[in-house]
Design a protein that fits this description.
globular
């Protein structure tokens, strides 16, 4: 399923033969692929449409689970049929200052799965063998898929907050969808208090948050009953930044976890003063993925999903956009 241009939706595309892996690549027979809000940003033109793809269009999908189906020249360490996961970060140069300093997520030449590299809204795909992960066996394909972006980006944002190392404190989660419902469980297991903020009136998301055991649930415009040590913004609404700054104590941190966000309105300097920090998260590193997946293997996460057939990918995107998915939407290729 491909996007031919921004705003034109998805079309079904058939190829005469299977894609052939180049040196260093794997061909993967896809079994499941999560549907992420970033896919909507590409569709809506909020992320620039790659000019070099031409008429082929963009094949979205960067929460991919599948089996190794073919090996390119020079690829070692994988067996045919092995289950692997493919994340958002699809390739980096390995030679720039960011890459050499362990910040490959900031590589200016990076290419991303489901954007510049054909992704997992497909029965088969190619991936750079260096950028795939082994997956915890406790999760089946459908429930492993959301770990690969909702889990990974959520985990990096959590680490940026400083609370992952502290393993204590009050953590606010603005937008309680795919990422937040996973991260809430991890934070609770590590001893934090979790406060869930949803869009006003979203009773289903609030019920899910309560079922997972968070300490407090409310609308995003409500102040929490106690000042937060950190707040993570998963909702792509810039208007929530001043709201979150007012909710954190002095010395606290607000982390914007999305790749795209609407404009942030002006706000009084007093809301930032007190050594509060405002930070963005850009993409992920392979180290983030390895660390998070080790934790997911030890802490059994309840991954709430709604499944769709591949041909219904556009409906899945529509449901996600309209807030009709509790947890994560996942395409199943079978």
């Amino acid at each position: 399923m491909a996007m031919q241009a921004p705003g034109r939706g998805l079309v079904e595309v058939w190829q005469q033969g299977l894609p052939q892996p180049a040196a260093g690549q794997l061909r993967i027979k896809v079994s499941a692929c999560g549907v992420c809000r970033t896919d909507l940003h590409i569709l809506d033109g909020e992320l620039p449409f790659p000019a070099d793809l031409g008429a082929k269009g963009v094949v979205p999908g960067h929460e991919v689970v599948g089996r190794v189906d073919a090996l390119g020249l020079g690829v070692g360490g994988f067996e045919m049929g092995a289950r692997v996961g493919v994340p958002w970060l699809g390739w980096t140069c390995g030679a720039c200052s960011h890459c050499l300093q362990g910040r490959e997520n900031l590589c200016e030449m990076a290419r991303f799965t489901g954007w510049q590299v054909a992704g997992g809204y497909a029965e088969y795909m190619l991936a750079d063998a260096r950028y795939v992960f082994e997956l915890p066996p406790a999760y089946d394909d459908e429930h492993a898929a959301p770990l690969l972006c909702a889990g990974l980006i959520g985990y990096r944002a959590y680490r940026m907050s400083g609370l992952a190392e502290a393993k204590s404190g009050r953590l606010g989660l603005y937008g309680f969808g795919a990422a937040a419902h996973l991260l809430a469980q991890l934070a609770l297991a590590q001893g934090l208090e979790v406060y869930a903020f949803t869009r006003p009136g979203d009773k289903r998301a609030q019920a899910l948050a309560r079922a997972l055991g968070v300490q407090w649930v409310g609308d995003s415009e409500q102040p929490p009953p106690q000042a937060l040590d950190a707040a993570l913004l998963f909702a792509p609404q810039g208007s929530l930044v001043p709201t979150a700054l007012r909710a954190v104590r002095g010395g606290g941190t607000v982390v914007c976890a999305g790749i795209h966000m609407s404009d942030i309105p002006s706000f009084p300097y007093a809301w930032l003063w007190g050594e509060r920090r405002l930070q963005s998260v850009a993409n992920l590193t392979r180290a983030d993925g390895e660390d998070f997946l080790r934790l997911a293997a030890r802490i059994p996460l309840q991954v709430h999903t709604k499944s769709y057939a591949l041909r219904d990918a556009e409906q899945a995107q529509c449901d996600l956009c309209q807030g009709q998915v509790q947890g994560a939407a996942v395409l199943l290729m079978s």
